[in-house]
Specification:
Blueprint lengths: L16 H11 L4 H23 L1 E3 L5 H13 L7 E4 L14 E4 L5 E4 L1 H6 L2 H17 L2 H8 L4 H9 L4 H34 L2 H12 L11 H12 L3 H10 L8 H13 L2 H11 L2 H4 L27 E2 L6 E2 L17
Parallel strand pairs: 2-4
Antiparallel strand pairs: 1-2, 3-4, 5-6
Amino acid sequence: MERKKLLMLNPIEYEHKFDKNALNVVKKIPGLKSVFRKKLQDYERYETVLNTGSSVKVTSTHFSEIHDILKEACANIHLNYIPEMYIGSSLMNGHSGWDVNACTLGYDNPMILLSPGSVEYLTPDELLCVIGHEAGHIKSGHQLYHEMINTMSYFGSAITQISFGLNDLLENTLNQSIDYMMNYWSRMSEFTADRAGLLACQDIDVAINVEMKLCGVPPKLYDEMNTDEFIKQAKEFENFKNLEKYYKELVELDHTHPWGVIRAFELLKWIESGKYHQILDIHTECELEELKRTCMKCGTKLNKDEKFCGDCGSKPEIGNCSKCGANLLGEEAFCGVCGERLWIR
């Protein structure tokens, strides 16, 4: 299957509404960003030293086929920033290195870490989906808040500074509440990154297979995996009501990633909404100049002097990237075209 490179793709076009809403709540926590930002530079240096010392770097001359997949993933979602990528298991958060897994580390200079299991057990198309997912985190500027979650060892002192000397009980309650809010947003951000992974590989069966492998299906059963059966399971699970739904949400409180069946269901809902195919059509059928005059929310062609879309009322842009001139919508952390760092979300 010939995949399409999506010109001028902006992450806001495929951002999941739960991601945006949850992050808006987290951003309202007083002092959180300023307290953590002081700690993250040291933690990013620690991650860099750990990976360069214990993992193996992927380059155009070392594991070139995997590096080509990285370049294609970034090209397909129009991220000109090519992050460094390593193979290793030094920061897999308790997972075995032979689990199918990947993560993105750092926020000033984000890098992608692939587990040995991902390289061993994923097909090239599935690896493209996984790397596209991680590139999607970078494109959406998720990394500041992901790094906050990664640095929970610093969290106690941060809460002390935020809580202004509350007693231990109130401080612990505040700590737990912020922990739950951060973890909830982290789970919602995975839905956005899953969409980026799908836009990179452009094959829903591949994306569903990735979700099954992430769930822990052993390699000897890969040939027996059935996407239709997994989709059926996902739809059955999403229909749980009342007490079953309460327990489902309670169990997830401490998780930073949603369960695979939920992730698959959310991808299917997005496709059924028509937005996935609309993005493919808008960003591949239009020429570059035409894209600059297209409403990325509804696809309507705009006149040069229009400040708002006449069909959906959205504002086409707020300015341009100072490095490459690409149109911006106003909430990006990085330019979705050249990767230039714009601002922290």
